[in-house]
Amino acid sequence: MKRRLSEQQEFEIMKLVLDKFLWLGFGIMAFGLYQMFQNGIQIGLAWLVSGAIILLIFTWIIVKEYEVVK
């Protein structure tokens, strides 16, 4: 038998997972900034764009999974 999670438990687990996406995206963008200073704008910009894409995926998952009400 599978155990069902309450909405609060599901939300807490989702926060933990999405927090990792946030740190990963920020880390990649920081690495891209470092690469811009060390190796040139093109290489660093590619890393920055990659980090931004990860953060956009993060935002999309939040909006898709939970209704964000203004």
Measured as a percent range, the helix fraction is: over 70%
What is the string of SSEs from the N terminus onward?
HH
What number is the mean pLDDT? 83
Q: Shape from CA axes?
A: elongated
User: β content, as a range?
Assistant: under 5%
Report the major sheet.
Answer: none
Radius of gyration: 16 Å
Quaternary status: single chain
Low-pLDDT windows of residues: none
Number of strands: 0
Overall description:
The protein has 70 residues and is mostly helical. The protein has a domain at 20-65. Helices cover 83% and strands 0% of the residues. It is built from two helices and no strands. It has helices at 7-39, 41-65. The radius of gyration is 16 Å and the shape is elongated. The relative contact order is 0.14. The mean pLDDT is 83.
Keywords:
70 residues; 2 helices; mainly alpha
Write the layout of secondary structure elements.
Elements: H1 7-39, H2 41-65
Helix pairs in contact: 1-2
Structure in a nutshell:
The protein has 70 residues and is mainly alpha-helical. The chain has a domain at 20-65. Helices cover 83% and strands 0% of the residues.
